[in-house]
Each structure stands twice: as structure tokens, then as C-alpha cells.
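ingest -> validate -> predict -> emit
validate: passed (alphabet ok, no gaps, 208 aa)
predict: started
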Amino acid sequence: MKNKLQLLIIALATLLLGLSIWQMLETPTMILPSWFLILLFVPIFLFIAFILGSLLKVLLKSDWNKLTFTSIFVIIISSIFYFSQYKATYKIIIPESYSGEVRLFVSNEKENDFIINNYGIGYINKGTFDSGFHPKVLKGGNNITEQTKNYGKGALATTVRDLHTYDYLSFIVPSKDGNVEGKSVEDLIRIKAIDTTRLYNRPVVSPR
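emit:
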């Protein structure tokens, strides 16, 4: 019975460690690639779990092996990391003919609108904007998530008279030849490609 319980703990630790590594691979990074972070942090994480497990075994004077106690800390730390990093996945539908910068403007609505128009504009509610999410980008029925790049946040300040700022997320959908095309936000507002009545207005703090 004791051996079966230890095997169960080790198996659960292996499963949760795998989920944590998958979570790290799914998390976009701005500088270093995800696989580099895994190679850097996973050995450190396992070493810390081993040290803590060894100390716990000594303190409890248990006849369980060190791998079991190491696995207990792997379960604890992996669970904390996985659930702290978990984000929902949302589909972003791109028009088949569109390439260039896609902008998801923060809206004053309860629902996200990730069906992108022909000018690369969609709308994201403030809750999703603040908490983040994993994008699944579809174009013409094909998953092009791996081809998209340059994820980031932007803001458009209105005139001094309005004193409001419109926030947005953006990423690039390259064309087949690798070129990036697109209009400026100001041009898109002028031609009414952006519905400003749907946008969340963030008040700008005026300098004193």
C-alpha cells in the first residue's frame, strides 16, 4: 500500500510538471524564447524541490524515499505556477484577404468581439484585456497562431479637449511575401473603420 501511494505521488508530480512546462511554452515572452526559460528554470526548480524534500524526510524521519518527498514539493510548486499562469484561450478570426497589424481595442461592452474586420480591427472587453489570454488566430479556417508576431499593447491619446486614451492589443499578420501593410489608427478612425462609440475611454491624468 505504501509503495502504491508513493508511485501515485510520483506520477501526479510528473503530470503536473508536464502541465507546467506546457504552460511555459504557451506563454509568449518578449525577449528570450520559452524553451530557453524552461532549460534555465526547470533544473533550478527540481533542485529546490529535491532540497526541500530531503529536509522534510529528515524532519519526519520517514522511511519513504527522497524521490517521493521531492515529488510532493513538485506537486505543490507546479500547482501554484500552473493555476497562477492559466489564461483562457480565445479564437481570433482574421479575414482571409487581410495581412498587416491587427488591433483589439478595449471596449465598453461585456463580450469580446474577436471577429476582425477588413481593416484589422476587433474589440476586447476590459476584463480580458487586464487578465490576458492565449490567442488562437484563425485565417481562412487555418490556424496561423505560430506565424503571428510582435504582440504588444498600445494606446491612442485623443485631443487635449477630450482628455481620453483608447487602449488596444496588437499583433502582426504577415503577408505571403513577408511585407506588413496597414493604416494608422488615426486614418482608421477617420474612415470609420473603428467604431469609437464602442471604445472604453480611459481618462488621461492632466499634468499639474
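Helices lie at 2-26, 34-60, 66-85, 126-131, 185-190.
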